[in-house]
Write a structure and sequence with these properties.
Number of domains: 3
Largest sheet: 6 strands, parallel
CATH topology of the largest domain: Rossmann fold
Structural class: alpha/beta
Number of helices: 10
Shape: elongated
Distance between the termini: 26 Å
CATH architecture of the largest domain: 3-Layer(aba) Sandwich
Amino acid sequence: MKDILESLLETLEQGRDAVFCGIVESSGSAPRTSGARMLVLSDGSIRGSVGGGPVEGASLARARKMLERGESHVLLPFDLNSHTAAQAGMVCGGAVKVLLQRVTPERRGFFEKLKGLHDARQRPVLVTVMGAEQAPALALWSEAAGQEGAELPEGMALELARKAAKTRQNFSLESDGLRVFAEPLVAPTVLHLVGAGHVALATAKVAAFAGFEVVVMDDRAEFASAERYPEAREVRVLENFDQCLKDLGPDDYVVIVTRGHLHDRDVLAQALRTEAGYVGMIGSRGKRDAVYRSLLENGYTQADIDRVFCPIGLAIGADTPEEIAVSIVGEMIGVRAGVRG
């Protein structure tokens, strides 16, 4: 979404219109779930995707006509039965509805605020309000700014705020013929890899591919280097592991893979003093139990210990660094999606 917002703002600043496309409803095995977004610019180029195939092709063609004709919005339904999907070279069917909305330069302030909240990791929610007797409207909600951009019935507004404050997933609300589709714009989860050995190297690659921003740190410069970790947002060479983790929040994940038990124990103690959304430590059950005993003897609680994923990763029989990386990232994806914890 960040790239789409940047392209949209650049277009609006140039005084040109664009068409904002989004899947607002899906059922069955649709190619992408509700919330997929695509932007069609005034030159006909696109940013993002609503799933490819006939859905994207038809949406793009219709958006280009909207730009030519000055239409404000169109709701396109698609029924992708198995025959249609097979003809398009897709393995899935299902039904989706794509909402196309023309965005004019007058809406620049709205999208600037949305992007600013997103950049500040305030978890804004993009809200699409749809009713039978009104044109679809874009609004936003954030804990910092509240709701703005559209009037909602009091009960629906309260439910929107309640759900938006606690979920990363898209959701819908309906009441008295009014439907709200909400898309939390969560900043990419940052993976802090503490240790830069073979497992970390593989984990960085898989995690970056899965959409995590990667930060790598180690006290060995020959391991912690930008050349070894081209996919990392940041690579830090530490003097030691003291105070290497601080000020972490729910969108920060920590994977502890240092070269020694003592380092792991000290880094884990730091991680548990933060609000990190995921804390995982590599090692055997024997190592884990020894580290846990040490922490409990030094004032940490069982509730602290229960936050830790150790042995780290999904139980898939992983053995090589690459397999271990897949198991770790799979586990983190589950936590990020709210199905593990």
